[in-house]
Each structure stands twice: as structure tokens, then as C-alpha cells.
Amino acid sequence: MEKPKILIIDDDPDLVESMRITLEANNYEVESAQNGPEGLKLVKEINPDLIILDVMMDSITEGFQVSYQLKSRDPQSEYRAYSDIPILMLTGISQKMHMKFSPAADEDYLPVEEFVEKPIQFDALLEKVARLIKKR
């Protein structure tokens, strides 16, 4: 049986490596990208089962922009074929900006399935990853 593929889009190499080690030890295949454009390119190349996406990279909203592109309902979107890939968003934004995020009933507002707060609790990460992949 093929290992589920996870794409991590995050500009923090230490965090990416610690997530990679944890996920690979739990039988997931992991690819990573350091920014949104690189991540979007990899989505097309590897068609992952799950995307773990950081909110703040080159800009404070880069993760939001990537999620909007991937979840676009536009029939002409170049990412239409990938819109069913679940997105698990990493955020430290509530600490930095004192804002709270949760998957909203209105998915147009922020089209992601789940959030994980930084610093990451790896047991919570693994539980959410398993649930999202199983749901797909």
C-alpha cells in the first residue's frame, strides 16, 4: 500500500524538519516547499493527500492566498483538480496578533479544514493529519 503524501509549505526549516521526522516515523511520505509559489508548483507535481500550510511566510497573508488559490470554485482555476485536498493550516498568528482562527461555517472566508497552533504539539498534529486523510 502506498504511503499517504503530505506537502508541507512553510519557510521555517527547523519546523519543517521536525514535522518531517514525526510524519515519516508514522508512515507518511513528506515533501516540502519554502513558500507559496513553490508549494503550488509541487501540488501539481505530486498531488498530495494533505497540505500542511503556514500562514505567514514571505508575507503575513501568504498562506491565506495559497489556500484561496487551491480552494477556488472558479471552473477556470488551474488548481481546480486539487480543490479537494485537505489543508491543515499552521498558525502562530493568534500569539503574534492576538487573533483566533477556527474553521468557519462560511468556507469562503478561510477555506481550510483544520488549524494547528504553534508551537506544535506533535500528538495533536498526528491526530489531525490522520483524521483529514481518512476523511478524504
Structural features, described:
The protein has helices at 13-25, 36-46, 62-70, 93-97, 122-135, and strands spanning 5-9, 29-33, 50-54, 87-91, 114-117. By secondary structure, it is an alpha/beta fold. The protein has one domain: Response regulator (Rossmann fold), CATH 3.40.50.2300. It has a 5-stranded parallel sheet, sandwiched between helices. Helix 2 (36-46) runs parallel beside helix 3. The protein is globular and about 40 Å long. The two termini are 16 Å apart.
Output the keywords.
single chain; 136 residues; alpha/beta; Rossmann fold; 5 helices; 5 strands; 38% helix; globular
In short:
The protein is 38% helix and 18% strand. The chain has helices at residues 13-25, 36-46, 62-70, 93-97, 122-135, and strands at residues 5-9, 29-33, 50-54, 87-91, 114-117. The model is unreliable at 95-108 (pLDDT under 50).
Distance between the termini: 16 Å
**Domain tally:** 1
- CATH topology category name: Rossmann fold
Overall mean pLDDT stands at: 88
Task: Using the alpha-carbon principal axes, give the shape.
Answer: globular
Ranges where pLDDT stays below 50 over 5 or more residues in a row are 95-108
What is the top-level CATH class? Alpha Beta
Q: What is the succession of H and E elements?
A: EHEHEHEHEH
**Number of helical segments with 4 or more residues:** 5
Specify Rg, calculated over alpha carbons.
14 Å
Strand segment tally: 5
Main-sheet strand order equals 2-1-3-4-5
Roughly what fraction of the amino acids lie in strands? 15-25%
Which percent bin holds the helix content? 25-40%
Corresponding CATH superfamily: Response regulator
| Biggest sheet statistics | 5 strands, parallel
Give the structural class: alpha/beta
CATH architecture: 3-Layer(aba) Sandwich
